[in-house]
Amino acid sequence: DIVVVKIIEVDKIVINKGYEDGVDSSMEFLVYDEGDEIIDPITKKSLGVLENPKGTFKAIHIQEKMATLLSKTTRPNRIFASLTKFSDVDAERDLLESISVGNKVKIINKR
Asked: What pLDDT is stored for residue 9 in this prediction?
């Protein structure tokens, strides 16, 4: 299981896997927490547990047993951000701020 082990900045985190585990710089990651189990109303069968995404990241530094990830969310321009009341970047930033140590992480572009 891949999890967040340290939050360096709101958009920079460390995970508990590194090159020893096959992490490489081409990988992208999703940080999420788990929600409720979803049941198909027609078949009454479980569709699995809902993943609540908190942000997508890319590896910027890989060590033997850990990797530092940087958010793919664009850092807002301070002047532009002060002129707008709310934007998609604000919503994404709120999600990033909700990341905590122990949140689950998965690779989203594995080939």
From this structure: 95
